């Protein structure tokens, strides 16, 4: 009973610390430097340490929550995820309490079926009828799945014999793609020098002319194109590559086309913004991460492809103690050999429950609202002398900008010298620190060396918690209040 009492107290702690309050005017979290936080939390572990009594356990939990970032706070715009959808969180609590593991139907009968139905739904949504997929711990892993599947389809003998003596395999991606593409080729033994990063245009979309030229050149050099990994919603600017044009190139040269839609894939629910994903059905595979814009609790990501049988063909090791073929039920629901993992969390149920409870129209309306709020914010800063947008147009909900304090405001762009820009870049860092230490606002920043752009802010608008025009106005007013005299 004491353990159950602690679980009840945890819920009360979460409520009292306003973890669930998406309208809170309190701070996002009280920033402390690492050494101070170590002292407050007493994190050291050692043999013979005194055990915690029930009162001390509660105190430890409260401190952990208090000094953690409240991602559901309405002014948290720092990452491509925020507070969890509450229906998804309820489902997550249920699966955590059951502590189920997704590898055989026997181990998780209900959730094996849930995953099957959820994957089938999203395969159809992407135009991959008859394909297959798997839930995976994040977009990085799903991008690795794509390269592994492409390699197995092209050179299946590598599974048994390894890469020794193989023709050089080339992965093509854009210079704005997620860094996990480079990490994946390292883990898969392909070599980072065999990732060709194609330049992007002024909107951060892959230059398809350069892509085709690079493909032709690699073939002429005796290499074998393996996969083209493009992006639907880049990390910094939210750009969508031209999927149809890239699909033409891949079709002509027989190359696997993967679409990393970890961020922008949410647009598939919106009738208004779905055209951003035009051509997705022509891809071989796609990464989707409902844990990002749609607010499914971390972790919740899918690798989907139009081909069937490759997941087992590439990943299966047929462990006799788990995947017996003479079981008393339909073993097609034993999905453990389709995954590179054995133990897998029940990620599908969170998303299934959100969809079942609300319906897909809610997702579409949420995407439309996020897009509208981002458009409003971009229009508002474009006419405000304290802000300078990095770009005049955006495709998604990423809005990038510089903050211009009073002392750096100019009468003409002609006055923007190298020294002036150096000061603007410094302001980005200084204002970021000021916002975080006050705790009132969190907006991320980035540089963009591909186009020689120094530090700027990147605001990303998500569906959960629900963004509003008032919150967009708060970002503007708070940044001006904090940065006016910088």
The assigned structural class equals alpha/beta
Q: What separation lies between the terminal Cα atoms?
A: 56 Å
The major β-sheet equals: 7 strands, mixed
Low-confidence stretches: none
Strand content: 5-15%
Output mean pLDDT: 94
Q: Give the helix level as a range of percent.
A: 25-40%
The 3D shape can be described as globular
Q: Biggest sheet, strands in spatial order?
A: 2-8-7-6-5-3-4
Radius of gyration, CA atoms, in whole angstroms: 24 Å
Number of strands: 12
Q: Supply the number of helical segments.
A: 15
The topology string of helices and strands comes to HHHEHHEHHEHEHEHEEEHHHEEHEEH
Notes on the protein architecture:
Helices cover 40% and strands 13% of the residues. With 486 residues, the chain is α/β, with parallel strands linked by helices. The strands form two sheets. Strands 2-8-7-6-5-3-4 form a seven-stranded mixed β-sheet, with helices on both faces. A five-stranded mixed β-sheet has the order 1-11-12-10-9. The chain starts with a helix and ends with a helix. The mean pLDDT is 94.
């Amino acid at each position: 009973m004491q353990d159950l009492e602690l679980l009840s107290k945890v819920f009360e702690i979460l409520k009292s610390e306003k973890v669930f309050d998406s309208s809170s005017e309190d701070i996002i979290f009280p920033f402390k430097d690492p050494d101070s936080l170590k002292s407050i939390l007493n994190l050291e572990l050692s043999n013979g340490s005194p055990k915690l009594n029930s009162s001390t356990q509660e105190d430890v939990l409260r401190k952990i929550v208090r000094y953690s970032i409240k991602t559901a706070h309405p002014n948290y715009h720092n990452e491509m995820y925020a507070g969890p959808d509450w229906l998804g969180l309820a489902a997550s609590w249920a699966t955590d309490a059951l502590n189920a593991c997704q590898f055989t139907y026997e181990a998780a009968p209900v959730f094996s079926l849930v995953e099957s139905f959820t994957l089938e739904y999203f395969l159809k949504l992407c135009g991959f009828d008859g394909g297959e997929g798997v839930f995976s711990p994040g977009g990085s892993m799903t991008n690795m799945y794509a390269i592994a599947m492409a390699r197995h389809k092209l050179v299946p003998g590598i599974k048994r014999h390894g890469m020794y003596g193989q023709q050089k395999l080339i992965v093509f991606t854009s210079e704005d793609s997620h860094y996990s593409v480079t990490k994946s080729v390292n883990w898969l033994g392909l070599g980072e020098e065999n990732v060709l990063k194609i330049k992007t245009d002024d909107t951060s979309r892959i230059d398809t002319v350069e892509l085709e030229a690079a493909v032709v050149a690699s073939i002429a050099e005796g290499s074998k194109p393996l996969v083209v990994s493009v992006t639907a919603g880049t990390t910094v600017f939210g750009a969508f590559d031209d999927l149809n044009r890239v699909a033409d190139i891949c079709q002509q040269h027989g190359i696997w086309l993967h679409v990393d839609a970890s961020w922008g894939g949410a647009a598939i629910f919106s009738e208004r913004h779905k055209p951003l994903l035009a051509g997705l059905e022509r891809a071989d595979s796609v990464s989707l991460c409902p844990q990002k814009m749609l607010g499914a609790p971390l972790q919740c990501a899918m690798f989907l492809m139009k081909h069937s049988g490759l997941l087992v063909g590439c990943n299966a090791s047929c462990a006799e103690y788990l995947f017996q073929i003479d079981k008393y039920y339909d073993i097609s629901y034993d999905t453990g050999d389709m995954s590179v993992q054995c133990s897998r969390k029940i990620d599908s149920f969170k998303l299934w429950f959100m969809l079942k409870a609300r319906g897909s129209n809610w997702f579409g309306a949420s995407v439309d609202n996020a897009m509208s709020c981002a458009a409003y914010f971009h229009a508002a800063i474009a006419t405000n002398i304290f802000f300078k947008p990095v770009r005049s147009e955006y495709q998604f909900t990423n809005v990038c900008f510089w903050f211009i304090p009073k002392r750096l405001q100019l009468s003409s762009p002609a006055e923007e010298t190298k020294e002036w820009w150096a000061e603007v870049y410094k302001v980005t860092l200084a204002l970021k620190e000021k916002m975080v230490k006050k705790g009132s606002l969190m907006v991320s920043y980035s540089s963009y060396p591909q186009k020689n752009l120094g530090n700027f802010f990147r605001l990303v608008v998500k569906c959960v918690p629900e963004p509003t025009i008032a919150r967009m106005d708060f970002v503007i007013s708070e940044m001006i209040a904090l940065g006016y005299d910088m």
